[in-house]
Design brief:
The complex is a heterotrimer. Chain A is an alpha/beta fold. Chain A has 4 helices and 6 strands. In chain A, β2 and β3 form a beta hairpin. Chain B is 36% helix and 12% strand. Chain B contains 6 helices and 5 strands, in the order ββααβαβαβαα. In chain B, α1 packs antiparallel against α5 and α2 packs across α5. The radius of gyration of chain B is 18 Å and the shape is globular. Chain C is α+β, with helices and mostly antiparallel strands. Chain C has 17 helices and 8 strands. Chain C has a 3-stranded antiparallel beta sheet. A 3-stranded antiparallel beta sheet of chain C has the order 6-7-8. In chain C, α5 packs antiparallel against α6. The longest helix of chain C is centred in the N-terminal third of the chain and has 30 residues. Classes of the chains: A alpha/beta, B alpha/beta, C alpha+beta. Chains in contact: A-B, A-C, B-C. Chains A and C meet through β2 and α3 of A and α3, α10, β6, β7 and β8 of C.
């Protein structure tokens, strides 16, 4: 259910919001998708939540993707409206060096733990979050595991095969040995 | 207590009297017999294997019949079944619970995760085997192991408790194969395959 | 008082959060991570005034296995194995949810028979999962018999059916991208139908044992109320949301697979208390049996696997696919860079989001009620922590 009119309404209100251009052969969800400038994320979210035509009251999920080649983190918000039964995807891009964005927890309290998880595992700071502490890992855990350049520090519980251990190849030695990526099998079973 | 429970055991002398039976044995043996017949595990589930452990306590597999009754506190438990993935954040709690159990205490490592990390062998947050924290008596393979496999482990543990007496002195972890019964089954299977 | 607490408790971010707020005549109580009633390794720190809870904070991560990172290092078929172990009470539904996402990436067509098998095993697993809830919730409240009936007897029969089709009891790896692993064996549909028939009187028995048990009703009615607005704002989905009133069910609202072909109702509650959350799950079992009976009656012939290679490389792109699991909306967000492994995979676990409501629910209730509220949320820690 692709809803371009939803995007149009958001753009009419916030001119610096753009719809990501549809690249040929790229797969994407059919839902409306807008790219929001990081500094505008809270006003846009507030608009989506409070506007009667939008009424996005249910935060489905939020997460972040580490595009290390472009040197950005992309935050992805999936919102749903329980009244209108439509969904929208928000995206915001922030620089990897200054990984900070404003928290949307005051708008949907359900984003609380999800933002904490992104903070914990991806190392993105959410300003204005009421309780921004590590949620999965313990305090003092070195690094942010979901980053692509994560370096694992071996401790006494480890076997030395961990992803990100220095000296191991990027995909991990065991998989190379299995030959998981070699060749394409014929289709059909 | 009827004499039948001891019939198969050679450490027992049974004397028949006109009014009943008299049993003579050593206190060591008797305590071991009592100990192995009432192994009380700690109610301690970590992950998927905990569901199979619960199934083992429930009606169909009914571990009560081998004297295995789960206890909610480590102070009353003899056995700790590590049922699931031990992650590094949980590791201090596992160690603490182990040390809260009274001696003699036994540990069964249930499933691939607690044996060696299993499907999470390359994870940044999983301890690769519970034997990196606490000594393990029996390893049960499987992901998760079936309740029957856990039953075999309990029988193997009973066998191990029995062997304490054989050693002639009380040592907590005697030099012997940790999973005697499992090994015997394995050997028998290999012999059967060869023939 | 507050200073005493500070010196006695162990260090940890959760304690630090609450200690700042500990007032006169208040204390902190640690629940878990090893506690017989937390359904896994959840740690909750309660702030108490006497026996009344004034605040609560969850400490997660005691089962954080780093699945999302591992998925970046595994090929797509290998991830199905990991998805089994996320929500280990309904592994079929996890497989299905992940396969939906990959199929969206690959734009694969699924044979009708495969969809029927998926609905059958998905609904059977939903029932099995609700049976675990039924049994353990009974134990939390103080009734042991329901556990032996639901968990020990009836759930084992479902596991027997699963064992026939894939050989595993808990972690199935059965639903594959493009279809299912194997066709159902000869006579399996008949055995499912026989099981449905056997279960009909047993469901009545379930009601006698627990649903209309006066002690159970006293312990759960009115306890831990969650309003519909609050639930939606938190993002609570599944039975926990429907107990508060909204009829939000992906199977009805955005039908995927072949759910639009089946007749079933979406049970809802009114008050959003523990009893309603229990009741919704109890009624969902009946509805799932309805779906299974319809699927068995119209079970089609045909292939069970679509045309998907053993190694596949989806195109560049990203998708998010949702699926109505037994605990709510289970979503998989996959970013593909054109290789045989996902560039990024994020799981939207229903339990994780639902558990956020705990803080709201327990305020003002006593410690014994916390156990009832925890049980009624029916979360799986494997999924919460991943």
């Amino acid at each position: 259910m692709y809803l371009p009119e939803l995007c149009q309404k958001v753009i009419a209100k916030f001119p610096d919001v753009i719809v990501p251009p549809l690249v040929e052969k790229t797969i994407r969800d059919p839902e409306a998708m807008v790219l929001v400038p990081a500094k505008n994320i809270v006003p846009v979210c507030r608009f989506l939540r409070e506007n009667d035509e939008m009424a996005f009251d249910l935060p489905i999920q939020m997460t972040a993707v580490d595009y290390i080649k472009e040197n950005v983190f992309e935050l992805v918000y999936y919102l749903y409206s329980s009244k209108k039964k439509h969904a929208i995807i928000l995206k915001a891009r922030i620089d990897r060096a200054a990984a900070t964005i404003e928290s949307v927890t005051p708008i949907w309290s359900g984003m609380d733990w999800q933002e904490r998880e992104v903070f914990d595992l991806m190392g993105i700071t959410f300003t204005g979050h009421p309780n921004l502490k590590r949620i999965m890992m313990w305090d003092g855990f070195p690094g942010f595991p979901l980053r692509k350049d994560y370096v694992h520090v071996t401790d006494r519980y480890d076997s030395g095969l961990e992803i990100g251990t220095p000296g191991l190849d990027a995909k991990g030695v065991p998989f190379k040995a299995l030959g998981a990526t070699t060749g394409e099998a014929p289709s059909g079973h | 207590m009827s004499g039948n429970a001891f019939d198969s055991l050679d450490k027992i002398r049974q004397h028949k009297f006109p009014g009943g039976e008299l049993i003579m044995t050593s206190v060591d043996f008797f305590i071991d017999w009592a100990r192995k017949s009432s192994i009380w595990p700690l109610t301690f589930g970590l992950a998927c294997c905990a569901i199979e452990m619960m199934a083992a306590y429930a009606s169909r597999y009914d571990f009560d019949r081998v004297g295995v009754i789960p206890r909610p506190t480590p102070r009353q438990a003899d056995l700790m079944i590590i049922a699931g993935t031990v992650v590094k954040k949980m590791a201090p709690a596992v160690e603490l619970l182990y040390h809260q159990m009274p001696e003699p205490r036994f540990v069964i490592s249930m499933g691939a995760c607690s044996n060696c990390g299993g499907p999470y062998y390359d994870s940044y947050s999983v301890a690769k085997g519970v034997d990196k924290l606490i000594p393990v008596d029996i390893y049960v393979p499987g992901c998760p192991p079936r309740p029957e496999a856990l039953h075999t482990a309990i029988v193997a543990l009973q066998d191990k408790i029995d062997k304490y007496w054989d050693a002639g002195k009380r040592v907590l972890r005697p030099e012997m194969p940790t999973n005697q019964v499992l090994r015997e089954i394995n050997d028998a299977a290999i012999t059967a395959r060869k023939s | 008082m507050a200073t005493d607490v500070k010196s006695n408790v162990s260090k940890g971010p959760v304690f630090e959060t609450l200690i700042e707020k500990v007032g006169e005549n208040e204390m902190l109580l640690n629940l878990g991570p090893q506690h017989p009633s937390t359904h896994g390794v959840l740690r909750v720190v309660l702030k108490l005034d006497g026996e009344v809870i004034t605040d609560a904070e969850c400490d997660l991560g005691y089962l954080h296995r780093g699945v999302e990172k591992l998925c970046e290092n595994r090929t797509y078929p290998m991830i199905i194995v990991l998805s089994d172990r996320d929500d280990y009470l309904s592994a079929m539904n996890n497989n299905w949810g992940f396969c939906l996402a990959v199929e969206k990436l690959l734009k694969t067509e699924i044979p009708v028979r495969a969809d029927y098998i998926r609905i059958l095993v998905g609904e059977l697993n939903r029932i099995a999962s609700h049976m675990v809830f039924y049994g353990t919730f009974g134990i939390d409240i103080g009734a042991f018999t329901p556990f032996l009936h639901a968990f020990g007897r009836d759930r084992e029969e479902i596991l027997d059916l699963f064992e026939e089709i894939c050989g595993a009891r808990i972690t199935y790896n059965y639903v594959r991208v493009g279809g299912v692993m194997l066709d159902v064996p000869e006579g399996w549909i008949g055995r499912v139908q026989a099981f449905c028939e056997r279960m009909k009187p047993r469901l009545v028995e379930y009601d006698k044992l627990l649903t209309y048990n006066p002690i159970f009703m006293d312990r759960t009615i009115g306890v831990g109320k969650l309003s519909a607005e609050k639930a939606i704002e938190i993002g609570v989905t599944g039975p926990a949301l429907r107990a508060s009133g909204p009829t939000l069910d992906l199977r009805k609202d955005h039908p995927y697979s072949l759910y639009s072909n089946f007749k079933f109702d979406v049970p809802t509650g009114k008050n959003g208390d523990c009893y309603d959350r229990y009741m919704v799950r109890r009624q969902e079992m009946t509805e799932s049996f309805r779906i299974i009976e319809q699927a068995c009656a119209t079970f089609p012939d045909g292939p069970f696997m679509g045309k998907v290679g053993k190694v596949y490389r989806p195109g560049i792109g990203e998708v998010y696919a949702q699926h109505e699991g037994p605990r709510g909306w289970l979503g998989y967000y996959i970013v593909s860079d054109g290789t045989d492994r996902p560039y990024r995979l994020h799981i939207r676990p229903p339990s994780f989001v639902n558990l956020q409501s705990l803080k709201e629910l327990v305020k003002g209730w006593k410690i014994a009620d916390v156990i009832a509220i925890l049980g009624s949320l029916d979360f799986v820690l494997g999924e919460v922590d991943r």
